[in-house]
């Protein structure tokens, strides 16, 4: 029987991090540690982690100092899933992890495949990939496509979670026939637990996915399970390109949003086929590695989502 690995997770209270924690704990194969910012002991997220027998270690990625080395004590695998603003801090984490003898470092990717020079945020992640290889620490790069949770919007504008959500979802660029891959957030941790226990994935890029569909197909699924008819907002590719250029001039979150949308729905970067290409990283297909995993589909999620909405 393989020796139990100790896994340290940064960003354990976020959406991706929480899924990873759940997957690791549910597998029963790992000692799990969450690295979190100093917080009150009665904070709900901390209480939940402790209730799952997750060890807590304190680390603030916005203020890394020499004490960070203690966080890596006895750790075999480090997984970074903290907010995107902390991406540059990963270089210090990689150095500290390497010095501590960590065997595998999984940087903060958890997104969609792409080539360099298309998305600014993705290029920042590529810099971290280069640094991991330069340092020589063992690694696995993991992408998961788009979250299934963002594939659908509420059936009515009045139910928006943020301004503009409904109209953004209804927007179809071009013919709406470009495919994109999706993974349910809940399935990310299931995949990760298998990936880090698998020697085949060491020093490899792995792509996880649950479904693949065009924007028009997603529209059809939404209408099927909501019982409503949605009127799409049509946008030409040229119009989207102008929006991307404007957002780049402004920078910030909107720049990332529009660059990613252009990548998904115009360029068609986010597909299983592309992820496997050399220029995208030669990804291993997680569904081929672990055919027994049955991830949720877009229809699975839509069925539940619109049932709750109604």
TrEMBL record:
Under Gene Ontology molecular function, one entry of this record is: oxidoreductase activity
What Gene3D superfamilies does this protein map onto?
Answer: NAD(P)-binding Rossmann-like Domain, UDP-galactose 4-epimerase, domain 1
Record's InterPro entries? NAD(P)-bd_dom_sf, NmrA-like, NmrA/Isoflavone_reductase-like
Q: Where is the NmrA-like domain?
A: 4-302
Source species, domain of life:
Eukaryota
Instruction: Tell me yes or no: is Nucleus among this UniProt entry's keywords.
Output: no
- Keyword annotations for this protein? NADP, Oxidoreductase
Pfam families the UniProt entry points to: NmrA
SUPFAM superfamilies according to UniProt: NAD(P)-binding Rossmann-fold domains
Record protein name field? NAD-binding protein
């Amino acid at each position: 029987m393989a020796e139990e690995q100790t896994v340290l997770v940064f960003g354990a209270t976020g959406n991706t991090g929480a899924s990873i924690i759940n997957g690791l704990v549910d597998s029963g194969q790992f000692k799990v540690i969450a690295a979190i910012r100093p917080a009150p002991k009665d904070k709900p997220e901390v209480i939940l982690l402790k209730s799952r027998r997750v060890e807590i270690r304190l680390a603030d990625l916005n203020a890394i100092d020499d004490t960070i080395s203690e966080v890596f004590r006895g750790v075999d695998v480090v997984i970074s899933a903290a907010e995107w603003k902390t991406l540059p801090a990963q270089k210090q984490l990689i150095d500290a992890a390497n010095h501590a003898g960590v065997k595998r470092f999984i940087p903060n990717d958890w997104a969609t495949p792409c080539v360099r020079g298309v998305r600014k945020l993705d290029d920042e992640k590529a810099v971290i990939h280069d640094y991991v290889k330069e340092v020589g620490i063992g690694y696995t790069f993991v992408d998961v496509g788009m979250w299934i949770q963002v594939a659908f919007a509420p059936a009515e504008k009045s139910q928006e979670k943020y301004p503009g959500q409904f109209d953004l979802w209804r927007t179809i660029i071009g013919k709406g026939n470009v495919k994109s891959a999706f993974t349910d957030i809940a399935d990310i941790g299931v995949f990760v637990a298998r990936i880090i226990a698998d020697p085949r994935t060491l020093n490899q890029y792995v792509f996880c996915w649950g479904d693949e569909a065009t924007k028009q197909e997603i529209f059809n699924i939404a209408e099927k399970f909501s019982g409503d008819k949605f009127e799409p907002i049509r946008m030409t590719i040229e119009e989207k390109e102008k929006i991307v250029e404007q957002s780049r001039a402004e920078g910030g979150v909107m720049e990332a949003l529009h660059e990613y949308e252009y990548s998904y729905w115009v360029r068609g970067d986010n597909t299983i086929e592309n992820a496997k290409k050399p220029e995208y990283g030669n990804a291993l297909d997680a569904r081929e590695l672990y055919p027994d995993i049955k991830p949720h589909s877009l229809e699975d999620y839509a069925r539940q989502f619109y049932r709750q909405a109604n």
